[in-house]
Structures are given as C-alpha cells and as structure tokens.
C-alpha cells in the first residue's frame, strides 16, 4: 500500500504496551512522516496535551487513573484543543464506543477489527470532518457576528409559518420586544395594515428573494415604516427566510418635511402676498414670482429681461437710486416706499427689501421682496388728515379732550389741561387713580357709579357734571361728555372725552337759584305776614266809619290802628332790606 506523505502528529493514550506497539505499526505502514507520542495514563496525557498540539488523539477507554469512560472522554475533549479524538475499545465496551459519538468524539474503532487501512481512514476522515466542522463553525461564527452586530434589524423566519427563529439585537432595540417574546411571535404580529397584500407577496416568492415596503407596530404601538429585503435560506434544517429590515420612518418624515417646505416655498413665493424677484447687476428682471399676476396684474414672463426702473414713478426714482448705492456694502437693506405702475396703468405703492445674493451660485443676483402697501398708504393719508382735523378742533375749542386707554390705564390730555386746571406736564399723572383723587368728595361716588355703568350696563355715552380739583387747590365745575370705544369682542377699550369748564355758568345758575329762593320768601312774606296787620287796620277803619256815633272807645281803636300800621311798616322795611341784599 502506498504510504501517505505529510507530517502526522498523533497522541496515543493506551495503557496496554502491546496494543500501542500494534497501533504504532499500523500508523507507520500508512504514513512516512509520523510523530507519535504515547501516554499510558490520563495524567501523562494531560501533560502532553497542555504542552503540544496534535493532529489526532487515539484514546483507549480503559485507563488506570480514570475508571469512568464518560468522564475520561469529556476531559480529553476539553484538553484536545480542537484535535479529533478517535476512541479505541474492545467488544466489551462496544456500547460505550457508540455513546462516545454523542459526547463529541469523531469516531470509534474496535481494537480487534483495527488494521492499518481502516485506522488510517478513520484518522483522516476524522481530521477532514473536524476541518469541515471547523470551517462550518467559523462560517457560522461569521454569520452570527454579521447577524448579531448588524446595525440594521435582522431576523430569521420559518418560511411557511412566518414564526421568528432568530432576531438580532438591533431588532430587539427597534421594536422593544425581548428575544424570548420574539420567539413566541410571528412576523404577522408586527403588521399594521395590507395583511392580504403582504401574504400574497410572501406566497408568490416562497423560494425567491423579494423586496417590500410595510408598516410595523413596535411593542408600545408606535408605527414604523420599514423596507424589507428577504432571502430564502436553510436554518437548522428548516426552510427559512433571513430578513433585513431597514427603518425608513425618519427618512419619510424628512421627505415629508421637505415636501412641506417645498409647498411652503410655493405658497410664499408663487402664491404669497409678496412679489419675489431676482435682479441682475443692471437691475433687469432675471426672475419674478407668479404672485406678480395677482398683486400687480402683470404677466411675470413679460417682465423678464426688462429694467425695474421703467416701472417706477419718475418722482420716486431719485430716492431709489440713492439707496441702491449701498449694494455691496450691506447684505440687506430696505428701499423707501415708491410707486410702481401695475398692469392696468394704475400706480401702486410698494415696499421692497433688497438682499445681495450675488455670491450665492444658486441665486447669482439681487433678491427683491416687494409688498403692496397701497391700502396702508391710503389709510395713512386718511389718518394724517384725521389727525390734522383733530388738532385743528383741539386748538379751536376751549374744551379739554381726553383719551383714556382702559387696558393700559393711561390718559392723554389736550393742551387745554393747563388752561382749564393749571396743571403742567410735570404735575400730570396719566393714571385713572390720579383723576379719581381730584374729584370733589361730594361728587365722588356719583361719578364712580356713573363710570361703572360703562362696564356693567354696556353704556356707550356718559354725560355728567361734577367738580374737579385745580392745581391751586380750588374746584371747578365741569361738564364731562364721553364716548366709549369697544374692541372686536365688544368690550370697552377706550373712552374719548370732551370736558367743558362750566364754573361761571354754574355760579350764575346758583345765583339765580338763590335769588329765586329769596323772591319766594318775599312772596310768602307778602302773602302771609303783610296781610295780618293790613287786615286789622282795614277792620278798625271800617268800624270807625260805620259805628263812630255809637263807640265809646275811639281812642283805643285809634291806638290799635297805629300799632298795626307800625307792624306793617316793619314788614315792608324787612322786605325792602332783603330785596336790596339780593340785588
């Protein structure tokens, strides 16, 4: 028989010297390059294995220092450093020889049936088998490392039942399920919708690769968008699929944000209330947004290439030309309002901000953002005219004009504040409390009650007379006529008042009232006090006239007439004195 070349290093663990010699002869017949070591006990074998590596270990199950064959085999396997172990046994230990295969040995041989050929074949078969196992193990280790350390979620499914057979750490972290929970689930437990469509895809590609986009639920019911790539494999003898799950949720969110951003850009630039244009260095239109059609009534395509200055009112061009001299010195600046002719030949007021983006290759020009302020200009003109009218009225009238802001609790007074009450700007306070402190104590509650009706009864007009303290400490009578302005919700926001000094009028009215009171008193005196003595005089005179021949007491009657006349004279003088006091 042709001897096999190649170095073969063998450890023979055999306590029987005769059996060792026989094995050595068999090995020598088949191998030219042979290194063989002999260990008669487990102890010696352990020393050999701890100091050197062997291609093959031949192990006799009967050693003097270890009686339990299973313990012996497992100890040798633990020390073998991956070398294949071939068990040598007799007929009496044949059953143990078969058992050793389940313990991890590569082969077993009956000593009585050993010859050079089958011993060599067993050794080389065991070595090749060990080599294949080692390669398979390394391959599995690479797969396991790739599978477990992949940053993308991966799992293995039963191809028919879609049960989870294995999952990597990335899948556990993404979905929130533990490995044990995954092993109790099928991939259907992750599906959100379109179950029928997914089932059909899986069925149609049972033995093929497929790609599909699906929606999955995590353990806490968060929805994910997943791109699935699935390949058929054999896993532990079962038809399976290895699946790579790419989470594209953030990608889709980013795309959605980009889409919204583009929509916002379209809304702002194309459909917005501002006209966006790009001008070259000569102020010719390179681009103008479609919003120009709605705002200016001009077709944007017709403006491109034309000078922006030809549409600006000639009176306003000098102001614009003065401003554009700042181009290159500042990044952005605002032009003064100017008039721009629209598509119908009308002048529109525009407000424009210029941004110098000539160094930006995406723009390469001056970006002009223009806003139509025609309505604002009209309102500004009307307001200015209104203020002028107000100022004229305020100067023409002697009344004090007040404007009270309820929310801010601040008064504004016209210049008549000094003329009427003598307060200068340093003495004035704009709060309502300051105003209340200067009300006359006798009028205070009446004025406060009338003011509160503005809020409680939604009263719009206030017309009331009261006394107000001047800077010198005296009080003046005033007529306060105020109007309440409400906000959009109908709540009072401001009170506009016109205050008239009626002190002189009030003094005159008071004097008339006092005169009337005296006149009433005089009239009462005339009708009651004067009539009593006058009636007595008239009665006594009638008595003298008609009964003078029969009267014995004429002197007494004359005395009574004289007394009554004196009493009447006193009353008349009193009335005269009161009349003189009044006038």
Question: Please, could you describe this protein's structure?
Answer:
It catalyses: ATP + protein L-histidine = ADP + protein N-phospho-L-histidine. Pfam families: PAS_3, PAS_8, Response_reg. Residues 334-385, 462-514 form the PAC domain. Residues 9-126 form the Response regulatory domain. The modification 4-aspartylphosphate is found at residue 60. The chain has 19 helices and 21 strands. 44% of the residues lie in helices and 25% in strands. A hairpin with a 5-residue loop joins strand 14 and strand 15. The chain is elongated. The protein has 583 residues and is of the alpha+beta class. The longest helix has 34 residues, at 116-149. Strands 11, 12, 13, 14, 15 and 16 form a six-stranded antiparallel β-sheet that branches. Strands 2-1-3-4-5 form a five-stranded parallel β-sheet, with helices on both faces. It has five domains: 8-140, Response regulator (Rossmann fold, 3-Layer(aba) Sandwich), CATH 3.40.50.2300; 150-247, 2-Layer Sandwich (Beta-Lactamase), CATH 3.30.450; 273-378, PAS domain (Beta-Lactamase); 397-501, Beta-Lactamase (2-Layer Sandwich); 515-581.
List keywords for this structure.
5-stranded parallel β-sheet, 6-stranded antiparallel β-sheet, Beta-Lactamase, alpha+beta, PAS_fold_3, kinase, Sig_transdc_resp-reg_receiver, histidine kinase, Rossmann fold, 19 helices, 583 residues, 21 strands, phosphoprotein
Write a compact overview of the structure shown.
Keywords: Coiled coil, Kinase, Phosphoprotein, Transferase. This protein is of the alpha+beta class and 583 residues long.
């Amino acid at each position: 028989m042709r001897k096999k070349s190649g170095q073969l290093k063998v450890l023979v663990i055999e306590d029987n010297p005769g059996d060792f010699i026989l094995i050595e002869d068999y090995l020598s017949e088949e191998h030219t390059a042979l290194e063989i070591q002999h260990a008669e006990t487990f102890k010696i074998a352990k020393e050999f294995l701890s100091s050197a590596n062997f291609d093959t270990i031949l192990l006799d199950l009967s050693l003097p220092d270890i009686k339990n064959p299973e313990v012996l085999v497992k100890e040798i396997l633990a020390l073998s450093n991956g070398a294949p172990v071939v068990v040598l046994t007799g007929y009496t230990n044949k059953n143990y020889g078969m058992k050793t295969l389940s313990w991890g040995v590569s082969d077993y041989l009956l000593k009585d049936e050993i010859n050079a050929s089958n011993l060599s074949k067993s050794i080389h078969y065991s070595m090749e088998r060990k080599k294949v196992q080692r390669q398979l193990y390394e391959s599995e280790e690479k797969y396991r490392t790739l599978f477990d350390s992949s940053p993308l979620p991966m799992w293995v499914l039963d191809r028919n039942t879609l049960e989870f057979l294995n999952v990597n750490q990335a899948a556990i972290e993404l979905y929130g399920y533990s490995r044990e929970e995954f092993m109790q689930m099928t991939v259907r437990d992750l599906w959100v919708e379109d179950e029928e469509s997914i089932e059909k895809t899986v069925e149609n590609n049972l033995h093929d690769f497929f790609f599909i986009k699906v929606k999955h639920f995590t353990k806490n019911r968060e929805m994910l968008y997943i791109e699935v790539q699935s390949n058929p494999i054999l896993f532990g003898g079962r038809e399976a699929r290895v699946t790579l799950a790419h989470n594209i949720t953030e990608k889709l969110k980013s795309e959605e944000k980009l889409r919204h951003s583009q929509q916002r850009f379209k809304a702002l630039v194309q459909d917005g209330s501002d006209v966006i244009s790009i001008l070259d260095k000569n102020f010719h239109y390179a681009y103008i947004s479609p919003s120009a059609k709605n705002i200016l009534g001009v077709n944007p395509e017709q403006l491109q290439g034309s000078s922006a200055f030809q549409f600006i009112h000639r009176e306003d061009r000098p102001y614009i030309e003065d401003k554009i001299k700042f181009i290159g010195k500042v990044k952005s600046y605002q032009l003064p309002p100017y008039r721009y002719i629209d598509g119908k030949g009308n002048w529109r007021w525009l407000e424009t901000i210029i941004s110098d983006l000539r160094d930006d290759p995406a723009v390469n020009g001056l970006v002009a953002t223009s806003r139509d302020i025609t309505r604002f200009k009209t309102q500004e003109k009307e307001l200015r005219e209104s203020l002028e009218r107000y100022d004229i009225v305020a100067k023409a009238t002697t009344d004090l004009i007040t404007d009270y802001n309820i929310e801010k609790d601040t008064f504004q007074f016209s210049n008549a504040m000094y003329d009427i009450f003598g307060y200068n700007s340093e003495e004035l306070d704009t709060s309502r409390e300051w105003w209340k402190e200067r009300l006359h104590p006798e009028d205070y509650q009446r004025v406060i009650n009338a003011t509160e009706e503005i809020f409680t009864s939604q009263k719009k007009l206030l017309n009331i007379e009261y006394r107000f303290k001047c800077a010198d400490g005296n009080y003046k009578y005033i007529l306060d006529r105020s109007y309440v302005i409400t906000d959009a919700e109908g709540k009072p926001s401001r009170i506009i008042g016109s205050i008239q000094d009626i002190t002189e009028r009030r003094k005159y009215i008071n004097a008339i009232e006092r005169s009337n009171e005296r006149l009433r008193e005089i009239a009462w005196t005339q009708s009651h006090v004067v009539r009593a003595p006058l009636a007595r005089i008239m009665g006594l005179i009638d008595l003298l006239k008609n009964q003078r021949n029969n009267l014995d007491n004429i002197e007494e009657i004359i005395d009574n007439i004289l007394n009554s006349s004196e009493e009447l004279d006193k009353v008349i003088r009193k009335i005269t004195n009161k009349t003189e006091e009044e006038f």
